[in-house]
Amino acid sequence: MSRPGRVAQLTLAVRTFWRELGGFGKVALAGLVISVGVAIVLGLGIPALVEDNLLEARVATLVGVTDDLVERDLIRVEGLTPGGLAELDEHVRLRLLGGDTVRVKLWQRGDSYTTIVYSDLELLQGQRFPISDELRQAFAGDAIVSQPALSLPENEFERDLSDLVEFYIPIPTASEETEYVFEVYQDASTMSATVASTQRTVWLLVVIVLAVLGAFMGSLIVANARLATRRAEQAERLVSELARAQDDERRHIVGALHDDVGQPLYRVLYGIQGARSQIEVDTPVAEELARLEDLLRNVDSTLKTELRILHHGAVEHFDLDTLVSELARKVEAETDLHVDLRFEDHSPLSTPMRTALFRAAGEAVTNARKHAKAESVSISVRDGNRRVLLEVEDDGLGGAHVPGLGLTTTKERLEAMGGGLTIVSRRGAGTLFRAWVPVTGSHET
User: Fold this and answer.
1) Domain that holds residue 98
2) Does residue 11 fall inside a structural domain?
3) Which of 258, 365, 353 is nearest to 315 (CA)?
4) Helix (H) and strand (E) counts in the chain
5) Which of 124, 14, 18, 117 is nearest to 75 (CA)?
6) How large is the average pLDDT for residues 353-365?
7) In 263-401, where do the E strands start and end?
8) Are the C-beta atoms of residues 168 and 134 closer than 8 Å to each other?
9) How many CA atoms lie within 13 A of 20 on its CB side?
C-alpha cells in the first residue's frame, strides 16, 4: 500500500475513533493529553531547575570565597608580590582546591590580552592570552558559568580532564571596576550524577502518575461508555414500548372512528336516501336532502382517507424502505400529493429506530399536505456520519413553522434514542424535515 493510502486509512481510523468516543470520552482524552504535556514539561523542567540551582549554589560559594580573599587583602590592585602570591596560593589550596575544583586561574585586566597572574599550576603564571568572550563579560562585572573551550591555548593543561564546568567570578575593586577575574574549573561529574538521579526519579514518578491517571481515565471512559450503552438500550426499549402503545392506540382510534362514527354516518346517509325516495324530486326539500347527501358522502370519503393514512399497519414486519414506499403509495392514492422517493444503501436499523423514522416521515408528509399546501414531496433515506438520515422536502408555502403535537412527540422520541429532528423552512421555498437515528449498536430485528 502506498504512503498516501496508509495516511488516509490512519486519518479515517482517527476520525472514527474520535466520533465514537462521545462527549465525556473526548473531554477525558483531552484531559489525559494535557496531563501528558504537563508531565513532559515537569520531567524536562525539574532536572534543568535542579541543575540551575546547583550551579547558582556553586557560584554563591565561590563568590563568598573570593570576597573573603579580597577582605584579607590577598588580591591587590597594585599587583601581587611573591610573598602575596605564596599567601594567596596557600588560601586557594586550603579553601578552593580539592574535591570538585581541579584548576584555579586569576586573570588581570588587559586591553586585547589578559594575563594569568596566579594559578595553582605555577607554569601558567605570567602567561598572556587573547581575551575570550567569557572573560570580557566577567570583566564587565557578570559571573559566568560555561563549558570550557579546551581547544583554546590557555586550556592546554585541562584537555586531559573531562566533564568540566568553569566559573568566572569577577573581583571588583574600590573603584567598582573589575581588575581581576577568578576562573575556577570544577569536575561536573558529581553534579551530573545528581541531576541524572533527579531526572530518573522525576521520570519514574511521571510514568507512575501517568499510568495511574491513564488507568483512571480509561476506567471512567469505559464506565461512561457502558452507562451510555445502557441508557441507549433503555431508551430504545422505552421508545419501542411507546411505539407499540401508540400503534395500539391508533388501532383503537381507527376502530372507534369506524364503528362509532362511520357506521352511524352510513345510517344517516341511508335515511336521507330513503327520505328522498318519498318526496318529489323538484321540491326544495328534495334539493336540500340532495345537498346533505353530497355533504355526507364527502365527510365519509374524508374519514376513509384519514383512517387509511392513520392506520399504516404493523411496522415491525418491514424494513424502512418498504414502509416509506407504502406510505408514499397510500398518500398518492388518497391525495393529490406527488411523492418522489430516493433510497441509498444504509445501515440496518432496529425496530424502534425504524419505527421512529417511519413516524417522522408520516408526520412530515402530513404537514406538507395539510399545512404547507404542497404539490410534491421528495423523501430520501441514506447513511451519513454514523447515522441513518431521512429527509422530507416539499414545495409548499414554507415560512415560519411551529411544530405541532405530532412533530414535537416525534422529535422527543428520536432524541430519546440519540437521534434528532430539524426543520428548515423558507417562505415560498418549501420546507426540509431532516430526521436521524444513530447507527452504532443498531441492528435489524
Assistant:
1) 77-187
2) no
3) 353
4) 9, 11
5) 117
6) 87
7) 338-343, 376-383, 387-394
8) yes
9) 13
Confirm whether 6 is domain-assigned. no
Residue at 424 is within a domain: yes
Q: Residue 372 in 3-state DSSP?
A: coil
Closest to 374 measured CA to CA, from 332, 409, 407:
332
Distance (Å, whole) CA 327 – CA 410 = 17
Exposed/middle/buried for residue 306 (C-beta within 10 Å: 0-12, 13-18, 19+): middle
d(C-alpha 315, C-alpha 60), whole Å? 86
Rounded distance, CA 379 to CA 364, Å? 10
Domain final residue, candidates 152, 187, 222: 187
Model-level pTM?
Answer: 0.46
**Of the candidates 377, 247, 375, which has an alpha carbon nearest to the alpha carbon of residue 324?**
377
pLDDT, average across residues 311-328: 74
- Determine the Cα–Cα distance for residues 171 and 141; give it in Å rounded to an integer: 8
Among 66, 56, 75, residue whose Cα is nearest residue 184:
66
| Residues 388-425: tens digit of each pLDDT | 999 999 888 776 566 677 778 888 888 888 888 998 88
Total domain count, the chain: 2
Domain boundary among 171, 187, 203: 187
Nearest in space to 165 (alpha carbons), one of 134, 130, 196, 122: 134
